[in-house]
Amino acid sequence: MKKILLIVVVAILSGCSPAPDVSEKVVWYPKPKEVQSFQLQDQYGEVLSNQDFAGKWNLLFLGYTSCPDVCPMTLLKLTHVYQSMKDKSKLQVWFVSVDPHRDSKERRQAYIRHFDPTFKAVSAEHSVLFPFVRDLGLIYAINQEQQEEYYVDHSASVALINPKGQLEAIFKPSHEVGAVPTIDEKQLLKDLNSIIN
């Protein structure tokens, strides 16, 4: 009887679910973090909110359509991850543009078509965008926005939001000397399946 009681107590204390077997490239939260209320506009002009996370696993990546390297490379890898999922209905991919000045809904729509038109390409004014990004544990900064051409510094990590709309994990990119920091798609897919299953 004492042994059974001990097992029950341990199960309760551990949240009833063991930690997933993931790589060192993943920051997994044993207690997923609530995401503050937000409203972003997608590539069709529709307003999306926390409710649009519900019922699916969501991969979120920051970027901008003028990005020369990290963004297209990462989105291509996320496209491969999405295509490799056995049950695609469980997953959504979000491209969060952190350059609302240049990335209109039309521009985001044209851009995301190069990868997968079912992906959500969202943005908002910085007053909405910055708190949303910070809440996910990611960052961005714009250099010399007053000029016509400028770069946007942003996290190369990918955030994972669970079907309850909570931040579940962060997939970190690989950093190699002389190479652009990007995610390892095969490792991300393996880690993602470990978390989901």
Describe the structure concisely.
The chain is an alpha+beta fold and 197 residues long.
Mean pLDDT: 90
**What is the first-to-last residue Cα distance?**
31 Å
Helix content: 25-40%
Low-confidence segments, given as residue ranges, are 2-14
Q: Give me the count of strands.
A: 10
User: Order of strands across the biggest sheet?
Assistant: 1-10-9-4-5-6
How would you sum up the global shape?
Answer: globular
What does the largest sheet look like?
A: 6 strands, mixed
Structural class: alpha+beta
Order of H and E elements? HEEEEHEHEHEEEEH
- Proportion of beta-strand residues: 15-25%
- CA-atom Rg in angstroms: 18 Å
- Number of helices, counting only DSSP H or I runs of 4 residues or more: 5
Overview features:
two-stranded antiparallel sheet, globular, disordered N terminus, 197 residues, alpha+beta, 6-stranded mixed sheet, 5 helices, 10 strands
How would you characterize this protein structure?
The protein has 197 residues and is of the alpha+beta class. It is 29% helix and 24% strand. The chain contains five helices and ten strands, in the order H-E-E-E-E-H-E-H-E-H-E-E-E-E-H. Strands 1-10-9-4-5-6 form a six-stranded mixed sheet. Strands 2-3 form a two-stranded antiparallel ribbon. The two termini are 31 Å apart. The N terminus is likely disordered.
